[in-house]
């Protein structure tokens, strides 16, 4: 199994293969049912098998999916995104998050005629040679014209921008700091404003990679929470509730560059995923999903914190409550996190020991309470380990 979905990277007992999902639950191929706090690593934002999304996808599938060009759903979806996202004047579509981040970088370079991209150290933007975290098989040239800064550190961002001189094409930054294995951080307003100001001063593009956080923190994009609007945004994961779709949205100032680059894919215009995305956006609005998952996330965080205090364990929970990450103090080799998750899994809750998790609209207070009850086996399992 390639990439991060390799179950060998998880504790013993984690399934590699899944049979089905329904609402906030998944079943593995051995018939075991779990409360699903990974939500397919982000795409499931309404719930597995959401009836409204499934109906829209089925209806479109009956008419056609992959045709000689896009269907009218492409226009309808683009208009909805532009209505919903304040920083969007236009939209284009792809399949995976990496397609979208790669297109953003290409558009920024086409627009500015410059090369250098500033990126935060440790941030994940996808698995293409220019951004994969594992350099095997890539060349130095794949990563040329990139400079790093520290997320949320204005001085390091300013220093990196100064080092670039007049070759800055873009600052590329995730919706919040959700790097693997370290505590998560929401963007500070000062950091977001500094990124905006540098791009304005230098005539560069500000790109927010909202592939992971998009549609979970704020209806209009994660940086709406700090009042800063990017020039380009990359979307995927939650946009179509599990159907295969990614999008780039941008400001008018980048429209010309977006029309000049050549990007495409055999399946990029398939209509079923777009119909699913339209239904997903409708449901996100109708149900206040952002508020629902925040309330459930707070319930989970409070419940875990209380149990950690009771067990006298140092448990750090960080980032937005609807995308929880927890790490144990002093757990440098993740032995505690792994034992905790393994025991909790056995009680029917699918958690991750080092990656952020995801809540969805189909989760209920009863599901969160079931996770908390299961976590008691986790806290018991790590007793001797500290
Ligand atoms: N950017 C971010 C912030 C992501 O979290 C991811 C996926 N985890 C990607 C880009 C790449 O998306 P994909 O795996 O769909 O190519």
Automatic annotation (TrEMBL):
UniProt keyword terms in alphabetical order: Aminotransferase, Pyridoxal phosphate, Transferase
InterPro entries: Aminotrans_3, Aminotrans_3_PPA_site, PyrdxlP-dep_Trfase, PyrdxlP-dep_Trfase_major, PyrdxlP-dep_Trfase_small
Superkingdom classification of source: Bacteria
Protein name: Aminotransferase class III-fold pyridoxal phosphate-dependent enzyme
Cofactor(s) annotated in UniProt: pyridoxal 5'-phosphate
SUPFAM superfamilies hit by this protein: PLP-dependent transferases
GO molecular function: transaminase activity
Family named by the database record: Belongs to the class-III pyridoxal-phosphate-dependent aminotransferase family.
PROSITE patterns for this protein: AA_TRANSFER_CLASS_3
Pfam families: Aminotran_3
